[in-house]
Specification:
The protein is mainly alpha-helical.
């Protein structure tokens, strides 16, 4: 593992723990984030593609439907941003 991979994994783990402990209705949304991150780590997505897809995930209907509270949406977006930043993709 490289330092970058460890940072990505830690950021992804934080998202999954937050969803699992507090917001299980966002489980599919977190799985989408994991899937995109794994594709990026495997080289199947370019940095631009990854960033675009993760940005789309932040604005997705899944999170809007599941997260009525502004605080929940804000935390979810923050956690996705942490993953993107950990991946070394410039926001």
């Amino acid at each position: 593992y490289t330092r970058r991979t460890v940072m990505i994994d830690n950021a992804m783990k934080e998202l999954e723990e937050w969803v699992g402990n507090n917001h299980t209705e966002l489980a599919d949304w977190a799985k989408d984030a994991r899937s995109l991150t794994e594709e990026f780590k495997a080289g199947d997505l370019s940095e631009d593609e990854y960033k675009e897809l993760m940005e789309d995930l932040k604005r997705s209907k899944k999170i809007s439907d599941a997260a009525d509270a502004l605080a929940v949406r804000s935390k979810a977006v923050e956690l996705i941003d942490n993953i993107i930043t950990s991946a070394g993709v410039i926001l």
